[in-house]
Amino acid sequence: MSTTELVRETPAPVAPAGPDRRNRWYKIRPKLWHLFLIPFCLLWVYPFIWMVSAAFKSQREMLLGGLSLIPEEWTYENFERAWTTARFGDYTINTVTFSITVVLIVLLASAAAGYALSRPDLPGKKVIVGILIATMFIPHGYTIIPVFLLVSDLGLNNGLLGAALAQAGPALVVPILLFMGFFAGIPRDLEDAARVDGAGYLRTFFRVMLPLSKPVIGTVTLLNFITAWNAFFVPLVFTLGNPDLRTLGVGMYNFFGQEGTDWTGMAAAACISTIPIVIVFLFLQRTFVEGIAGAVKN
Fold first, then answer.
1. d(C-alpha 132, C-alpha 176), whole Å
2. Higher model confidence: residue 143 or residue 1?
3. Which residue in 2, 81, 105, 224 has the fewest CB atoms around it within 10 Å?
4. Is 256 in a helix, a strand, or coil?
5. Is residue 162 over pLDDT 60?
């Protein structure tokens, strides 16, 4: 082979590729977007930070201190006054009992209903689901009178159990739909295998299907616990005859007096009522996301 032919067959060296400006832009764009959202995040978080700051201020400093977040003189009397004078210690116990009862009622009822509605051969399934979705558009205040009469006929008025039943009733629609979507995505082979092993309908539900729905259980628990913890209207109506059973949301009215409002005490009480919600969310945030994603995917 001649030298000329070797030169022709030798591949020409490839020039090094220059920087890809498009890839660099895609890497920088998220950072620019984060810089744009930081002021809005601070604006959103500022009221909460101000509430915590006001809980450690005196009444005079809170009213005359403007937008300052750092107290000049730290005081803990506001928390003591909220816990004892405003009886937030008793109200916290009532709220925990009320919220846990609501969560248990919603979980048991919605899981059972969602499992039944997840069966494709259920007669009238579309009608039932349509009625459930339609009830979501009815304002809660319109149904409080029949619910109050029903709870009174059951002899559960002026009690936390009656208030929990009234709170859990309207809260069942979304959990039912979440459980229905999750159970519909589980293969029927698991139920068939359980029946072959001799398990009945209830045993299949409690031993096989319900343990698989832990993400949805976490989501429903978190949503309804927060809703029940912050509830005001239902606990107010169903504890009018027994003020000792008031919840934290209703107890906030203790800071409003005829001569003025205890704003710093209210800020301390708001901090007390917020701490349990934050703790519950931190424990259930992963299952919350998994439950929503699993129900929507299915």
1. 9
2. 143
3. 2
4. strand
5. yes
Across-strand partners of 245? Answer: none
> Could you tell me the two tokens for 214?
């832990």
What average pLDDT does the segment 64-73 reach?
A: 79
Note whether 191 and 126 are within 8 A (CB): no
Token couple for 246: 């008031």
8 Å CB contact between 263 and 44: no
The CA distance from 138 to 79, in Å, is 39
In sequence order, the 6+-apart residues with CB closer than 8 A to the CB of 122 are 116, 128
Check residues 151 and 170 and name the one with the higher pLDDT: 151
Average pLDDT, the chain: 81
Identify the CATH homologous superfamily for domain 87-297. Answer: MetI-like (1.10.3720.10)
**Each residue of 244-256: b (16+ CB within 10 Å) or e?**
ebbbbbbbbebbe
Contact partners, residue 113, CB within 8 Å, separation at least 6: 172, 176, 179, 180
Domain ranges of the chain: 14-75, 87-297
d(CA 176, CA 113): 6
pLDDT bin (cut points 50, 70, 90) of residue 261 is confident
CB neighbours of residue 229 within 10 Å: 21
